[in-house]
Amino acid sequence: MSPGRIVAAFATVALPLLTGCHTSVGRGWTLLDRHPEEVLRTVRPVGSSALIVRGAALRRLGRLDAARSELLMALSMDERSARGQALLGLVQLQLGHRGAAMKALHRSVTLAPGQICVRRELARLLVWRAWYRVAPGLHQVAEAEQDLVRAESLDPCLRPRVARLRRELKQGPALDGAARCPGIPALRWSVAPPRCGVAHASRQVDDLLRREVLVACHGPRLALDLERSGCTEQALHLWQAMAAEAPRDPRWPLHVAWIHLQRGDPSRAQPFITASLYLSADRGAALIDLAQMLEIAGQPARAGRRAVEALAMATHLEQQLEALHILRRCGSAEQLHQGAQVVLESTWPLPAERLRELVRRATEGGARRTPAP
Question: Which pTM does this prediction carry?
Answer without folding.
Answer: 0.73
